[in-house]
C-alpha cells in the first residue's frame, strides 16, 4: 500500500502528495478550474481574506486537507489554521483563515468545506462515543465502512476524535465473518479446521502487522466457546445481548481479546463497555456521521 495511505503500523498519515492528489481529484469533479461564475465576475487581481467559521460545536479535523485544496487551486494562497487538529470548538469559532486572490478562494471553497465538514463530523461523532465510555477500559474502533477513496482521511478523523483504527483493509488482518462460515461449511469444514488453515497460511502474508492473529465473529455464547476452543486470538461479539456479552467476555478472559459490534450507538455504548469488552467497533462513525456545519466568510 502506498506510503500516504498507511505507515509501518497500519495508521493513516496525511502525506502531502496524497493530499494533493485527493484535492485535485475533488476539484476536477467540481469543475473548479472552469468556474464560469467566478471567471466572469471576479477579476484575477482582486485580493481578500476568508475565515472558516464553525456554526456548530464539535471537534475539528481536516484543516491540512482544506489547506491542500486551497493550495491546489493557487499556490500563492496563504492558509492559517487557528485551532489544533482534534480540538473541540464552540459554535462561532473561526477555525482557519485563507488569504490571497479571491477568485482562487471561491473556486476552492466548496471542496475545502466538504472535506473539512466531513472529517470534523467523523471526529465529533467519535469523540462523543469516546466520552460516553470515559473511565472504562474499552476502546472505540472504526470499521471498513468508509467512503471509497477517502479511507485514509476518514480514519485519520477517527483518531482526531480519540478513537482507534481497526484492521486497515482485507490484506492487513484476519477476521472470519458469517459469510466466510457459509463458504467453510459448504466445503464440510468447521471452526477448528478453519482456524488451523488460517494459521498455516498467515506466515505467507507479510502484510499482516499482527502476524498470525485470528479474529472470529460469533453471535452466541456457544459459538464463542467453540471459537475459543479452536484457539482464536480475538472474538468479535456481533449483535449480542448484554448478558450474553458478559458471559463471552468472562469466558475469553486470558484467552482472547473481545470486540463488541452491531448497532451500537451513543445511547448504548456505555452499557456495552460495562460488560468488560476490550474494543467496541462502530461503523456509524464513518458511514453515518453528520457533517459539522462550517461556512466560509469572505472579507474583501
Keywords:
2 domains; single chain; 12 strands; six-stranded parallel beta sheet; TIM Barrel; four-stranded antiparallel beta sheet; Aldehyde Oxidoreductase, domain 3; elongated; alpha/beta; 300 residues; disordered N terminus
Kindly describe this structure.
The protein is 40% helix and 18% strand. With 300 residues, the protein is of the alpha/beta class. It folds into two domains: 124 residues, Alpha-Beta Complex (Aldehyde Oxidoreductase, domain 3), CATH 3.90.1170.20; 156 residues, Aldolase class I (TIM Barrel), CATH 3.20.20. The longest helix is centred in the middle third of the chain and has 31 residues.
Condensed summary:
The chain is an alpha/beta fold and 300 residues long. Helices cover 40% and strands 18% of the residues.
Shape descriptor: elongated
Strand content: 15-25%
CATH classification class of the largest domain: Alpha Beta
Binned, the helix content reads: 40-55%
Unreliable runs: 1-12, 206-210
How many domains would you count in the coordinates? 2
Helix count, DSSP H or I runs of 4 or more residues = 11
Per DSSP E runs of 2 or more residues, the count of β-strands stands at 12
* CATH topology assignment of the largest domain: TIM Barrel
Order of neighbouring strands in the sheet with most strands: 6-11-10-9-8-7
Mind telling me the CATH superfamily name of the largest domain? Aldolase class I
Largest sheet: 6 strands, parallel
Class derived from helix and strand content: alpha/beta
Radius of gyration: 23 Å
Q: What is the straight-line distance between the termini?
A: 44 Å
Order of helices and strands: HHEEHEEEHEHEHHEHEHEHEHE
The name of the CATH architecture of the largest domain is Alpha-Beta Barrel
Mean pLDDT, nearest integer? 91
Amino acid at each position: 500500500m502506498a506510503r500516504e495511505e498507511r505507515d509501518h503500523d497500519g495508521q493513516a498519515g496525511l502525506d502531502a502528495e496524497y493530499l494533493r492528489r485527493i484535492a485535485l481529484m475533488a476539484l476536477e469533479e467540481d469543475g473548479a478550474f472552469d468556474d464560469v461564475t467566478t471567471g466572469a465576475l471576479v477579476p484575477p487581481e482582486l485580493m481578500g481574506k476568508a475565515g472558516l467559521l464553525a456554526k456548530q460545536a464539535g471537534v475539528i479535523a481536516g484543516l491540512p486537507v482544506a489547506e491542500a485544496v486551497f493550495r491546489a487551486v493557487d499556490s500563492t494562497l496563504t492558509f492559517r489554521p487557528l485551532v489544533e487538529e482534534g480540538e473541540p470548538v464552540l459554535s462561532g469559532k473561526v477555525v482557519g483563515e485563507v488569504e490571497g486572490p479571491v477568485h482562487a478562494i471561491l473556486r476552492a471553497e466548496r471542496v475545502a468545506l466538504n472535506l473539512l465538514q466531513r472529517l470534523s463530523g467523523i471526529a465529533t461523532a467519535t469523540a462523543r462515543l469516546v466520552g460516553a465510555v470515559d473511565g472504562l477500559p474499552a476502546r472505540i474502533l472504526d470499521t471498513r465502512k468508509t467512503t471509497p477513496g477517502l479511507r485514509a482521511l476518514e480514519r485519520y478523523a477517527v483518531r482526531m476524535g480519540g478513537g482507534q483504527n481497526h484492521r486497515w483493509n482485507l490484506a492487513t488482518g484476519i477476521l472470519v465473518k458469517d459469510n466466510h462460515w457459509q463458504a467453510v461449511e459448504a466445503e464440510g469444514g468447521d471452526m477448528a479446521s478453519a482456524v488451523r488453515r488460517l494459521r498455516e497460511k498467515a506466515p505467507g502474508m507479510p502484510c499482516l502487522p499482527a502476524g498470525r492473529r485470528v479474529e472470529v465473529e460469533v453471535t452466541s455464547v456457544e459459538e464463542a466457546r467453540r471459537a475459543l476452543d479452536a484457539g482464536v486470538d480475538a472474538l468479535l461479539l456481533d449483535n449480542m445481548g448484554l448478558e450474553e456479552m458478559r458471559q463471552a467476555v468472562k469466558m475469553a478472559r486470558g484467552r482472547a481479546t473481545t470486540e463488541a459490534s452491531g448497532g451500537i450507538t451513543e445511547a448504548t455504548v456505555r452499557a456495552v463497555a460495562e460488560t468488560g469488552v476490550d474494543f467496541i467497533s462502530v461503523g456509524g462513525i464513518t458511514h453515518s456521521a453528520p457533517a459539522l456545519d462550517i461556512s466560509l466568510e469572505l472579507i474583501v
